[in-house]
Amino acid sequence: NHVVLGDYAHRLNHNKSYGSSTQAVSVAAWWPPFILHRILRILPTYGFCILLWWKVAIHLGMNSGPYWSHWSTFVAQCDAYAWTNFLFVNNLVPWDQELGESGECMYHAWYIGIDFQLCAVLTPIFVTLFLQGGNATG
User: Fold this and answer.
1) Own/partner pairs for 90-99, CB < 8 Å, 24+ apart?
2) What's the rounded Cα separation, in Å, for the pair 48 and 54?
């Protein structure tokens, strides 16, 4: 991800520095394919894990163990909030979560939502700053 983004920024900066006839591409031109690539790379595996956690694991005969008493709660949470995981907003919805056990589906994957949100928001900012001469490498 960083290699692709770094290569793209380098090519744009190279074209700008050497007077290439190719104009610098705006954020609106490269950001949607960048985000789509990230979604297509993450979502199949992430979706499979969610479905395994939500729909399959309950039928695997795991009716004993330290977490079995909580499993019906996990399934109910996924019934209500699995869509938040697929949209990468599972760290934001449901908003009014009590401390302790989380009210979201697949609560241990909260960082995937944050990672996606930070990538979507900060990448255009950092590439724009880099291309405007904000790089200190000379």
Assistant:
1) 91/117
2) 10
Which pLDDT score, from 0 to 100, does residue 39 have? 95
Strand locations in the chain (E):
none
Q: Measured between alpha carbons, how far is 39 from 77 in angstroms, rounded to an integer? A: 23
Q: Per-residue confidence at 98, pLDDT binned at 50, 70, 90?
A: low
What is the reported pLDDT for 53?
A: 87
Q: State the pLDDT at residue 99.
A: 46
- 113: Cβ–Cβ under 8 A, 6 or more apart, which residues? 84, 85, 88, 89, 90, 91, 92
Q: Is the pTM of this model over 0.85?
A: no
Could you tell me if 84 and 105 are in contact, meaning their C-beta atoms sit under 8 angstroms apart? yes
**Residue 97 falls in which region: left (phi positive, over 0), alpha (psi -120 to 50) or beta:** beta
Taking each continuous run of H as one helix and of E as one strand, the counts in the chain are: 4, 0
